């Protein structure tokens, strides 16, 4: 297993976003991605999820609208303990130089320090968390072959 700290940086190549801050949270079951303007519309006769990643205050924000027909709706317990209906997508991230698939629930994390949360479902059997450390993947990004 790989040692990961409490915070790291990840890439989201499908969305052309790189070095985005992610909080590693063993207290959260699922992973979450900061989005806004999340809504289900219809395109070409199919239910389509429409969303924007990050927000205008974030340096990597590009104002792009993303669309996918590959999404789920599910109930998620929020950080304040309330159940919320959220949409989720599965996408590829790059961390420690490796591509991995992650399911993210899409939610407004504008009041949080980090736009991405990596939960236990993703971390399990891959990582050991050392809360005294941070940015281990990012610090080793260019050293790996």
Automatic annotation (TrEMBL):
InterPro entries assigned to the protein according to its UniProt record, in alphabetical order: Asp_endopeptidase (IPR008503), Peptidase_aspartic_dom_sf (IPR021109)
Domain of life: Bacteria
Residue ranges that the Swiss-Prot or TrEMBL entry lists as coiled coil: none
Organism of provenance: Reichenbachiella agarivorans
Protein known as: RimK/LysX family protein
Pfam family of the protein (one): Zn_protease
Domain Retropepsin-like aspartic endopeptidase: 3-136
Positions of transmembrane segments: none
Phylogenetic lineage: Bacteria, Pseudomonadati, Bacteroidota, Cytophagia, Cytophagales
């Amino acid at each position: 297993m790989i040692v990961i700290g409490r915070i790291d940086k990840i890439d989201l190549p499908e969305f052309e976003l790189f070095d985005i801050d992610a909080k590693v949270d063993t207290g959260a079951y699922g992973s979450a991605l900061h989005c806004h303007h999340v809504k289900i519309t219809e395109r070409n006769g199919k239910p389509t999820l429409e969303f924007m990643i990050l927000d205008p205050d974030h340096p990597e924000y590009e104002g792009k609208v993303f669309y996918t027909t590959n999404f789920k709706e599910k109930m998620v317990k929020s950080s304040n303990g309330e159940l919320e209906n959220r949409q989720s997508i599965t996408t590829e991230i790059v961390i420690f130089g490796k591509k991995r698939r992650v399911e993210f629930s899409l939610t407004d994390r504008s009041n949080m320090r980090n736009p991405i949360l990596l939960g236990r479902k993703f971390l399990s059997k891959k990582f050991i968390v050392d809360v005294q450390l941070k940015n281990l993947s990012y610090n080793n990004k260019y050293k790996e072959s």
